[in-house]
Amino acid sequence: MSLGSFERSSIAGFLILVAAVSSSAAAQLSREQGGKLALKIDGINKNAATEPVRSKTTPMSELEVNSYLAFNINDKIPRGLANPEIRMVGDGQLAGRVFVDIDEFKRHRSSGGFFDPLSYISGQVPLTARGVLHTRGGKGQFQLASAEIHGVPVPKPIVQELVSFFSRTPENPHGFNIDAPFNLPAKIRQIIVNPGETLLLQ
Fold first, then answer.
1. What is the CA radius of gyration of the chain?
2. Which of 45, 102, 182, 190 is most buried by a 10 A CB count?
């Protein structure tokens, strides 16, 4: 699996789209930290190409991931999304924030009517979300716990609409289903989310 395919994997795409809560590491983001993660991803892909795959644990810090998002794949973030940040809470919990261009989304969507909370929002707004990542045996699933825009709770169906819209690709025109299990990339068996650091086990 190539570096590019790792970046387009389900887990990477989901982390870009469902980011939540500002991270204290934001002020320390750097190209150097992003480069460190790029080298680690390269090592993960090289190890995945071996037969048999060598047992390997790769740590990824919160600072490295946020720097990588800011400097290494910023141009690959879907149009209408900006400045994603991830926070590694621990015990599998992830939180993050991403700025969403609501107008871009609404141009391709009919209004949900009076009770649609997005009807009263416009421009770029911060979508924050929190949930738990469950992984085992090369499979993963994300359990969304909550999402907000400007402190106002966003119902899960609307979160799914946003994720589906911004994660669409020619290969997957319906986008990412936040409830659906997915295969972990690069022969990763398990992902362990600790406070400030995530471990990728091959």
1. 17
2. 102
* Dist CA 37 CA 40 (whole Å): 5
pTM reported for the whole predicted model: 0.84
pLDDT of residue 108: 81
Of the candidates 94, 84, 88, 85, the one whose C-alpha atom is nearest the C-alpha of residue 59 is 88
**Each residue's pLDDT tens digit, 67-122:** 999 999 988 899 999 999 999 999 999 999 999 999 989 888 766 655 677 777 88
ω into residue 84 within 30 of 0, thus cis? Answer: no
How many Cβ atoms are within 10 Å of 5's Cβ, its own excluded? 12
- The tokens describing 18, both together, are 């469902």
